[in-house]
Write a structure and sequence with these properties.
77% of the residues lie in helices and 0% in strands. It has helices spanning 3-29, 37-57, 60-83. The longest helix is centred in the first third of the chain and has 27 residues, at 3-29. By secondary structure, it is mainly alpha-helical.
Length: 93
């Protein structure tokens, strides 16, 4: 494996796995009150574009990292859309 690919896979693993604890916490608790819909929408779109960029370039470290991150961020975004309304002022009693 070429050194630049090894660096790419290591960077991909570190940045993707750093996102995992927050994603798992959100999936377990379904607490999306601290998540910005605008930020997650923009982030998820950006990750999708990075994935497309990696596919076009056949840059497999970019593809691998962004495929996993897109699945996680897409799941969190879906939870925000589904459960986000429960965090409004009317729910606080």
């Amino acid at each position: 494996m070429a050194l630049h690919d090894l660096i790419g896979y290591l960077a991909a693993a570190l940045t993707t796995f750093s996102f995992l604890p927050q994603a798992l916490h959100t999936f377990r608790t379904r607490d999306v009150s601290g998540i910005s819909l605008g930020m997650y929408s923009t982030f998820t779109l950006g990750v999708a574009l990075w994935l497309a960029y990696g596919v076009v370039l056949a840059a497999w470290p970019i593809v691998a990292a962004n495929a996993v991150t897109l699945a996680l961020s897409g799941g969190i975004l879906a939870m925000k859309l589904r459960y986000g309304h429960r965090c409004g002022a009317a729910d606080r009693g």
